[in-house]
Amino acid sequence: MCELDQLSDMSRVSRRQFGTLGAVAGLGAAFTPWAVANAQGAGGLTENMVSFAAPGGTMDAFFVHPSSGKHPAVILWPDIAGLRDAKKAMGRRLASSGYSVLVVNPFYRSLPAPQFKDFADFRDNGGFQKVGPWMARNSHENVTETAKAVVAWLDQQASVDTSKGIGNQGYCMGGPFTVRTAAAVPGRVKAAASFHGGGLVTNRADPNDPNVPIKLIPQTQASFLIAIAKNDDAQAPTEKDELKAAAQAAGRPAEIEVYQGDHGWTVPDSPVYNEAEAERAWGRLLNLYKTAL
């Protein structure tokens, strides 16, 4: 199932529901873990927007890490609504667990972040129409080159422990980026986590695509966490088994599970955010990084 198809279902959520969730722009009490992450950001974390040369343009990103020491690096690939406050909060929360986290702008080749304030802004202001040309620039080759540049930048940072592997996690559109990143720099990227990622198994535009993520797994040295939305699984029920078989054939550790949340359930400004299942997925993410990095 492709990203735009998955998000078309989400776009039918009512304006009232978006309004209720709009509090996440400030990441307040409705999303306690993210509010805590923001509070921690004022104390034991260091954060700033950064920019550096990358293929096709200048990457702008949010970098957050513990204020002292060296820590394993993690790349966070956002969903279709891009780098925004909700993703920064996710980065802060992960950094508070002892990681140097770079939340990248997946559309840097087209324009700087933020492209949208939150997911409601994406839905209400022509997000689907706007992102089409930006997404078209995220070909396999381009994502691969970007991943190499991001890893190289991270390895130059004083807060990054280069003796540890790099993790990367992606949401929706960013899910397949995690496999591409692990294949692009296999000697450094040791963990890949996809949350309700689209296009991991098939490329509708090119059924014979040799670079579909499932075919890249043998090129990696990573452990995988692939968390699948229940409605995505309902539409493509064989994909989880195909992914399990591919990981097993490649000899790569992989935890692949269908969660009881709809596409987008892990993202705090998503209209289908499911706190209980999001917290369970977050716990599995921390376990992946603890064991693989």
TrEMBL record:
Q: Which UniProt keywords apply?
A: Hydrolase
In terms of Pfam families, this protein maps to: DLH (PF01738)
Q: Which organism is it from?
A: Croceibacterium selenioxidans
Residue span, Dienelactone hydrolase domain: 59-292
| Keyword Hydrolase attached | yes
Among the GO molecular function terms of this UniProt record, one is: hydrolase activity
> Mind telling me what this protein is named?
Dienelactone hydrolase family protein
- What InterPro entries does the entry give? AB_hydrolase_fold, Dienelactn_hydro, Dienelactone_hydrolase-like, TAT_signal
